[in-house]
Amino acid sequence: MVEPLSQPRRDALAGLLPHWAPTPGRDAIRRELRFRDFSEAFGFMTRVALLAETQDHHPEWSNVWNRVEITLTTHDAGGLSERDIRMAQAIDALLG
Amino acid sequence: MVEPLSQPRRDALAGLLPHWAPTPGRDAIRRELRFRDFSEAFGFMTRVALLAETQDHHPEWSNVWNRVEITLTTHDAGGLSERDIRMAQAIDALLG
Lengths: 96, 96
Prior knowledge:
Strand content of chain A: 15-25%
CATH class of chain A: Alpha Beta
Structural class of chain A: alpha+beta
Number of domains of chain A: 1
Largest interface: A-B, 15 and 15 residues
Number of strands of chain A: 4
Number of helices of chain A: 4
Oligomer: homodimer
Shape of chain A: globular
Helix content of chain A: 40-55%
Order of helices and strands of chain A: HHEEHEEH
Mean pLDDT of chain A: 97
Largest sheet of chain A: 4 strands, antiparallel
């Protein structure tokens, strides 16, 4: 098991991750992204895939041409954990 | 515009693409796949991405760890077209 996210960290979430929103009906966060085309979208996804393997923490995600939607949650915590914050920050860092 | 799939081809779809099922409520087909792990799933997705660029026909798809779900439809045809059959067959060929 992984420790669920503490209440103080939850309260700080909007400030820590301004580009991420709560996923309705789940203890998870999501971010939607748009790129110039599929090539750019999938190039980004490949970089996120490498991050996911490095951090051993994998997104739930979907892609339709230039759009990518990413949901982060931690199954072993039954919801959000520090792993999601770390991954979200790493994804944000890719986007500059 | 792209020509919508003809009725004879629709009638033959189950035989042509036995691994694909109609998407409920849409004129589209879908296939769900399971791999050993994320690495294998994303490796497969990368091969499909290369196909998609080659054929200039892109899937709607999602991934959760070792699972990949692919939906094919042709926006320019308002539903299924020959492009979807060609892409589905190319994806099936990757899976041997």
